[in-house]
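re: that complex we talked abt at group meeting.

here r the seqs, copy pasted straight from the sheet so there may be weird spacing, ignore it
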Amino acid sequence: MTAALSVRNLRVEIPTRRGVLTAIDDLSFDIAPGEVLGVVGESGAGKSITGSAIIGLLDPPGRVAGGEILLSGERIDNLSPSAMRQIRGKRIGMIFQDPLTSLNPLYRIGDQLTETILTHEAISAKAAAEKAERLLVEVGIPAAGTRMSSYPHQFSGGMRQRVVIALALAADPELVIADEPTTALDVSVQAQIIALIKRLCKDRGTSVMLITHDMGVIAETADRVCVLYAGRLAEIGAVRDVVKRAQHPYTHGLMAAIPSLIDDPNEKLEQIPGSMPRLGAIPAGCAFNPRCTYRFGRCMRERPGIYPVGASDASCFLHDASGEAPPAAVVRNAIDAGIDVRASEGAEP
Amino acid sequence: MSVEALSRPRPAHDGTDAPLVEIVGLGRTFDLSKRWLNRVLEGSGKVTLTAVDGVDMSIRRGETYALVGESGSGKSTIAKMVVGLLPPSAGSVRIDGVDIWKELGGAEQRQIRRRIQMIFQDPFASLNPRWRVGSIIEEPIKAFDLITDKRERENRVGELLSLVGLDPRDAGKFPHEFSGGQRQRIAIARALSSSPEFIVCDEPTSALDVSVQAQVLNLLRDLQERLGLTYLFISHNLAVVRHVANRVGVLYLGRLVEEAPARTLFSDPQHPYTKMLLDSVPDIDMTGRERTPIAGEIPNPVNPPPGCHFHPRCPLRFEPCDKVRPPLKEYGQSRAACHALEEGRVSAHRD
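got the structure back, here u go
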């Protein structure tokens, strides 16, 4: 089966006065039809840039410097701006973080929806208006008929985000890119919106790329998750594997650092020392090595590839069965922490 | 002076166990009316927003009291009134028995202010970008005339920096040279520089990434143990609150709807809103726990529903809920304001 979206060795560069920064470095992943792929990472990891690169809306001077992006098997990264406009909105829907800025404050909700539908479908204005109302009902807006003539400011935050979801789904896209769709909302509303996105995409068989910094949202919504660190893939796998049995030391640390409702509140939270490097100062070798408790000689020199571990893939030398072996002590610590080390054990230092 | 000497001895327990902070009937309204002339011409009346409505709570020495609530629940307004940044419209805030909003003499006012400090949410907005870190941290020391000798003051700044896990040499740098987590450490060092007993933390980790959030939460906990600090911790993140708080107050549209020891609140919530809030925390452990979906959103605080503010969203609402404000009553270790609990329509405790 052809993947709904396939990103191959994507490289995004941002030229600056002080040299070229690499915001995304050799990133590859697939989203199967009907699948929800979560993309997580901390600020600066390159989540949103990946989303912008896919829809061809990178802020200049940022540019796709390498790799391929395929939508249902067709390349879309080399299309002309006008060809890309045909795809954006029609075949790829978008939901952004702040619903107030993604709606035009001067147009009625109904007009914005009908305009989107008419742009992408050859139907009459009347049929488009009917479809718009159906969409509003589908996303759970009460009294949709009368709300069609309301302006965005007359809606609450949660209702506005529902309208944005209706807009994203207006042209029945194959893929929806949701960039932090619940971050601006209160927790009680967040749960409603997550449930809505999940239900709609399941009903319609739409694939979703869900970009968020919130592991909780991912755990609830995604089928698979892709963890980014400093513009590079750290780990990708089924959501349960990554959440419960993370294989990359970064993901492992990240999961332990998140306070949850079942761990012991008297225990200190585990913390990862330091913070994510800036784009201009990514360390040599593995980007995570200065913060990593399991690093050994190789990590500072070579950049790790992507190695399979169980059903996941992780970019860490602990899982590389060839090449320099990690010291025995490192292997033991990693195994104690629940990481399935595949590299052969080296000598005692 | 060693780092240890920075902390005054823990406030002696004089046996009375009197709370450090006592808040009684605290209220705050904001006037959102149009100007007088517009009101006359357009025939519109006065519009007021009640941000905080009759909140009673007390914070014991050395404990962390967390206030949770969604946006518009009045968390930050309470924080501002407690530290002395915003005068209350009703009620009082007493720190160590002294009403901070009563007319105090200048010296007395300064004395009490020195003992309260605040850490803000956004470390990118709360540090002056044109000041060096050293000047930022020593400002409270200068303002309260705590150390007059320049050399000694610099030493103190260095000690504060190492106390929060930074390098004393960082004093010469500017805020933009630091990451978000490091900036929040600088804000904490500044809050500690006047040797306060009570620190109000208003969403101290909301602007930070999770791996950095854990560092800051652990630091706050260490400092509390070392310096005997008392915290008022404000957050919308229940999982974070569970990790830091000894007691928790839940706010809804400016009113305290439930208060309980943290352990009790999370294992045995009483108020339907608290239960709903706990249910809406994403299930990161993938336990597949049963969760009730939540209906509706927080209503407009300018025109809150009558009676119990929560009744339009409440699955347990009945006769008096839309007319009478429920009083805060004790149920075991918790206090909650709910008619359904009061009349025993739901059993107060789980089996």
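couple things i noticed - Residues 14 and 21 of chain A are 5 Å apart (CA to CA). Chain A is about 35% helix and 20% strand.
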